Amino acid sequence: MKRMLVIMLAASVIAIGAESGYDLFQKALVLERTEGNLPEAIRLYRRIVEQNSSDRNLAAKALMQMAQCQERLGHVEARKTYERLLRDYSDQTELAQAARGRLTSLAEARGGPSASAMTARKVWSEPGIDFEGEISPDGKYVSFCDWETGDLAIYNLESGTKRRLTDKGHWKDDGPYAYFSRWAPDGKQVVYEWYDGRGCDLRVVNTDTAKSRVLYKSAKWEVSTPCDWSSDGKQVLAFDSKQYERSEGDIVLISVDDGKARVLKTVHQSFEGSPMLSPDGRYVALDRPQAESGAEHDIVLLSVDSSRERALVSHPANDWVLDWSPDGNWLLFASDRSGTQGIWAVRVVDGAAKGEPALVKAGLPDMIPMGLTRNGSFCYALSSRNESVYVVKFDPITDKVVGSPEEVTARYEGLCASPAWSPDGKHLAFACSRGPIVGWNGRNILRIRTLDTGMDREFTTPFSYIHFPRWLPDGRFMLVTGTDDRGTGVYQIDTETWETKLLRDIPTGEPSRNGKGYFYTKREKESNLCRILFRDTEKGEDRELYRGPLVERFWISLSPDGKWLAFLNSTNPRILRVIPAGGGEPRELHRFALEGDDNILPAWTADGKYVLLSKPLGPDGAKEKWDLWRIPADGGEAQRLNLGMRCDPSVSPDGRQIAFGSGGRAPIDEVWVLDNLLVQLQPKR
To answer: Fold identical between 271-383+666-685 and 388-662?
Structure first.
């Protein structure tokens, strides 16, 4: 009896193990095919093989799926996994035959006539990748900030595993975190920017021991950002700047031994690409604006010993630095001179350009550079930023969206937001970013589209970031919220002369319809209040309309007739209210659940009968799916407009078009490697 019980228990364990293996296999398939999370799928397939070797068909299937995932990620381990399937599970005929076919294809790709051709391969894909790091010199790792904790970490491109190099613990309040990082030439150290809540210093960490030390902290500036290493590993090139504005600062060269810094140049500009030190240590390549308020940049060489500049790349297009070739003979740069952004190269001899720039790789408009390896492979990321401006037709009679939205921001695709119609409906203004590197370039361009001609005018503002452009009734002046090193304020911009004037140190401004004042919100720590006020610019007086707790932030919108102000709070539950513009009791229109700090901007329809806002579809505030809704200003149920996306709307004066900025991260971020990039620059035989 006891022996029978043992046999039954053993059979149960085997059955449970087999069932568990198949359950894991289904979970891995979902991760691979539905969610696109290949690294996690690989981890589960590997676990299945380890725990279910007796189920040969299941183990072989797991190996096949694991190899296919590795191949899609560009991992060299794919070949080893196919070989293991052939070696250990040759009795699984169909799977073994498929593995043999893939090995043949991989061998042909590796050793055939195309072995020296430039090829692109995806090496990492998952949500929310930090792109401010760099590929290691040997091409095996990528440094990044792990935003789960804020630690500096490295990602193994072959195994798909991560390892933290710092250990700050979980987030507490705002907490410290790592940011930009750059590899030493020997691959044994990484220099990185460390934010401590007040400013940033530079630190160096050993990749083997994970021991770090403070390398340098500027006595003059709040932020120090690493740009590059000298080829001998003895110096770090960095840019010291203000905390909230990287458009003014010092380019410095720092000794790795003692942290002493030498200022090479003080600049009053922002960069499109990171300044890069030539391999011989004689020059720093950096981009410069072609004009004081211009959008395009050229490239210059800064002499390390004399701090003199020499023009290297001058062209009407926008050009910015990517990296030097390891031998220092070529400078790679990004340019849109061919109509779309691509990779170009110029030969450099004794600090001067020799010959015309050559196109290396076309068609990379969304590229974020992540460095060049020793063997000439170029790493780049594809940003998941999707902040674009669209216009969609709207039928005010049927109250329905008509047709599909059309994007109006082709030049800065994925980098624009906050549209605003002019009072006559002939122009559309919006805010844009330039360049793919978020840390160097905020959304600081004001762009105005003339709709009947399709022509654009743009102004590079003196701010690191602008938000919420709003037209004044005269159609010439605008209000924008601008952020710089002094903080955030509301500024008036003349759209003809681009003259900029500070109005108030406040976070938002909504102009009155008569042009004699503006509405704004103000958070006051002293009184523990957040207030909505109206500023009478003729009398120089403020009038309070509403007050709430300090924890709130209010997003406001004035009705077309100027009689009502709609506002939405920032805490859960979100409550949409309206209040008379002249003062009075607020009235609640709608409330919904939404956790987090998502900013939602209300907008009015042209007839003033409805307030539009984006909100999640689910009643519990889940953020997976959003849509545009309209809420009757006199009260009533919210009505879904079936736009199919999250947006910050602005309605044209005739009520027949809705412009909106639609943002949010794409499901999967990607890191790619271009192999044999420098082969294209070799002389043809």
So the answer is: yes
Q: What is the pLDDT of residues 147-169, one digit of tens each?
A: 888 899 999 998 889 999 999 87
| CATH level 3 topology of 271-383+666-685 | Neuraminidase (2.120.10)
More confident residue, 75 or 82: 82
For residue range 488-508, list pLDDT tens digits in order: 788 999 999 999 998 877 767
pTM of the model: 0.61
- Among 497, 508, 631, which residue's Cα sits nearest to residue 559? 631
- Can you tell me the distance from the alpha carbon of 120 to that of 674, in angstroms, rounded to the nearest whole number? 4
Per-residue tokens: 157 = 């491109």
At 47, which helix (H) or strand (E)?
A: helix 38-51
Among 297, 260, 267, 264, which Cα is nearest to 281's?
264
Grade residue 215 by pLDDT with cuts at 50, 70 and 90.
Answer: very high
Rounded CA separation 155/369 (Å): 16
* Mean residue pLDDT across the chain: 84
Kindly state the tokens that stand for 628: 């545009």
CATH architecture of structural domain 132-270: 6 Propeller (2.120)
**CA 470, CA 474: separation in Å to the nearest integer?**
12
Q: What DSSP assignment string belongs to 139-206?
A: SSEEEEEETTTTEEEEEETTT--EEES----S--TT--EEEEEEE-TTSSEEEEEEE-SS-EEEEEEE
Helices 56-72 and 93-111, packing angle to 10 deg:
20
Cα separation, 261 vs 116, whole angstroms:
42
Give the amino acid at 477. Answer: F
Nearest CA to 369 among 414, 432, 436, 313? Answer: 436
Whole-number Å distance between alpha carbons of 414 and 592: 29
Kind and range of the H or E element at 654? none
What's residue 665's pLDDT? 43
In whole angstroms, what is the distance from residue 214 CA to residue 201 CA? Answer: 7
pLDDT digits (tens, 9 = 90+) for 561-586: 999 999 999 888 999 999 999 999 99
590-594 contact pairs (CB < 8 A, 24+): 590/631, 590/638, 592/616, 592/619, 592/621, 593/619, 593/620, 593/621, 594/621, 594/623
> What does the chain come to in residues?
685
Q: In this structure, how many other beta carbons lie within 10 angstroms of the beta carbon of residue 375?
A: 13
In Å, how far are 134, 552, 594, 627, 633 from 571, measured between CA atoms? 37, 6, 8, 19, 22
Residue 384: enclosing H or E segment and its boundaries?
A: none
**Considering Cα of 74, then 76, then 81, then 87, what sign does the dihedral take?**
positive
Domain 2-111 maps to which CATH number in 1.20.1630.10, 3.30.360.10, 1.25.40.10, 1.10.3720.10? 1.25.40.10
Domain-wise residue ranges, the chain: 2-111, 132-270, 271-383+666-685, 388-662
Q: Report the distance separating Cα 476 and Cα 472, nearest Å.
A: 7
Secondary structure of residue 76 in the 3-state scheme:
coil
CB atoms near residue 286 (< 10 Å): 28
DSSP 8-state symbol, 682: S
Three-class SS of residue 100? helix
Q: Pick from 138, 178, 144: which is nearest to 158 by CA?
A: 138
In whole angstroms, what is the distance from residue 404 CA to residue 417 CA?
Answer: 18
Region of 159 please: left (phi>0), alpha (psi -120 to 50) or beta. alpha
CATH 3.50.50.60 is the classification of domain 388-662: no
Beta bridge partners of 331: 324, 346
